Amino acid sequence: MPNNMCSRCNRLIPLSATRCGACINNTGPKPRVYKAKNRHARGYTNQWLKNVKAAIALQPYCSFCLTRGDNSNPLTGDHRIPRSKGGTNSPSNIRVLCRRCNSRRGNRGY
C-alpha cells in the first residue's frame, strides 16, 4: 500500500493523510498577537519607539525607494527579520522604510 510522509516529522502515514497523529495532537492554535488592540500588547514598547526615532534621525530616508517621509507617506521602523519569524526589537534589527515600502514588504525577512 502506498504511503505518504508527514509534512512535519517525515514519518510514513497513510496516503489520505497529510500529518501523523502525534503532529496533529501537538498542534494548537497560535496566539494572534498581531491582532491585539494596542501596540504594547503587540510587543512594541516605548524602547522600540525610541530606537525607531533614533534610526530615522540617523537616516531620514527610505532604505528601499530613497524618498523622504511626508504626512501622506511617513517614515516607519521596519524589522529586518520580522518578529513573526523570530526577530527582535533591538536596534540592529531596525531599518527605516516609508509606509508604502513597509506595507508592500509584509513579513518577508532579509
UniProtKB/TrEMBL annotation:
Designated name of the protein: HNH nuclease domain-containing protein
Pfam families: HNH
GO MF annotation terms: endonuclease activity; nucleic acid binding; zinc ion binding
Entry-linked InterPro entries: HNH, HNH_nuc
Alphabetical list of Gene3D superfamilies matching this protein: 1.10.30.50
Span of domain HNH nuclease: 51-103
